[in-house]
Amino acid sequence: MAQQACPFLSIDPSGQDLYGEISRIRAQGPAVEVELPGGVRAWWITGLELNKRLLAGPETSKDAFQHWPAWINGDISRTWPLAIWVSVRNMVTAYGSDHTRLRKPMAAAFTKRRVDALLPRVQEIVDRALDALERIPEGEVVDLRAAFAAPIPHEVVCELFGVPAGEDGPRAALYRIISRFFDTAISLEDAQANAVDLYGTLTAFLQHKREHPADDLTTALIAARDEGGLSEQELMDNLILLLTAGFETTVNLIDNTVHSLLAHPGQLDLVRTGQVSWEDALEESLRFEAPGAMSGLRYAVEDIEIEPGLTIPKGDPLVVSFAGAGRDPERHGPDAERFDVTRTTSRDHVSFGHGVHHCLGRPLAMAEATVALTSLFTRFPRLALADPAHPPKRLRSIISTGHEELPVLLHGRGPAGPRPEEAEMPAQA
């Protein structure tokens, strides 16, 4: 095995220089050992084609209980701040026949028929959010992530799974918990407290749904559990997966696409004038800013030869970097760091996974984002970044790719300020 130079590149848990770190890793080779938050070492993969190979093939697994010796032997503490990403037993962390078994009842939840049936309700939720924005006084800076990008997916996913509303209900609790779930700079104590809060909230929610079944996905999953298709732990952990991923990735997709279009008004004009479609803009956004920067840990089921002289040993953890794959210059050219809605390779990304682990919720996420974006820019045609010269701060995460806030002016700038088309920003590194 080729040895990596020491010291290992230590990944910043706050994620504030994510793409800078990816560039430095890429410069060292196709697979580079890094140190993750909490001192855990893993191989980081940045290239698109290698990402696809490792996502699709049987040579890697996401089941730490079968294929990560350091986890099985207790060398990695169960108090590791990122332990919940390893310990959950759901379709994403399952391997082989277990993955097939767990994925089957979920697949029925995201059929085209069900997504199409949801679209009128999605439009109602979007319109209500836009109505609230219209009541904000002109000239007031608005955090569009909090006021628009986040509430829409949260409400959609909660309705899909039958999560009751109300200030003291599980819907409000889950919003708070999920907001912290992806924080990889969180303290050990806060991470453990959040996990306890999450499982406690879902336990009470499942009890409520058993007592009040309805035509929703949680009731369907409970039925699958009762029929022997899932264990209670798998039921709980698949709910965690679907509620968190169904919320966070769509929030980031809306947030990132709005930011990229406003930061590059020439690109926005191409969409507005119909030279490219909203789907083109979303696909380029997915490539340029993968809503989930990485897939969670995978483990080498066998020795994996990356290239002559470079082998990942059996049992070693590795990170498939969706963010790295999206900006791979070998696939997307020397300007891969540039946002370009006309790019011919935009659709060649792995932001929704690849192979057997491709995301079931992609059709719903794309439908939500399309309705949200077209409605937003129709209602507020002069929408502009509040401070074009300073990119908003990133989320504290190496997993979730978005912004802590997205400050905008709904009606553009007054006569004294620059118009959006005069303040195009460079690509965010």
TrEMBL record:
<comment type="similarity">
    <text>Belongs to the cytochrome P450 family.</text>
</comment>
<keyword id="KW-0503">Monooxygenase</keyword>
<keyword id="KW-0408">Iron</keyword>
<dbReference type="GO" id="GO:0020037">
    <property type="term" value="F:heme binding"/>
</dbReference>
<dbReference type="GO" id="GO:0005506">
    <property type="term" value="F:iron ion binding"/>
</dbReference>
<dbReference type="InterPro" id="IPR002397">
    <property type="entry name" value="Cyt_P450_B"/>
</dbReference>
<dbReference type="InterPro" id="IPR001128">
    <property type="entry name" value="Cyt_P450"/>
</dbReference>
<dbReference type="InterPro" id="IPR017972">
    <property type="entry name" value="Cyt_P450_CS"/>
</dbReference>
<dbReference type="Pfam" id="PF00067">
    <property type="entry name" value="p450"/>
</dbReference>
<keyword id="KW-0560">Oxidoreductase</keyword>
<dbReference type="InterPro" id="IPR036396">
    <property type="entry name" value="Cyt_P450_sf"/>
</dbReference>
<protein>
    <submittedName>
        <fullName>Cytochrome</fullName>
    </submittedName>
</protein>
<dbReference type="GO" id="GO:0016705">
    <property type="term" value="F:oxidoreductase activity, acting on paired donors, with incorporation or reduction of molecular oxygen"/>
</dbReference>
<keyword id="KW-0479">Metal-binding</keyword>
<keyword id="KW-0349">Heme</keyword>
<dbReference type="GO" id="GO:0004497">
    <property type="term" value="F:monooxygenase activity"/>
</dbReference>
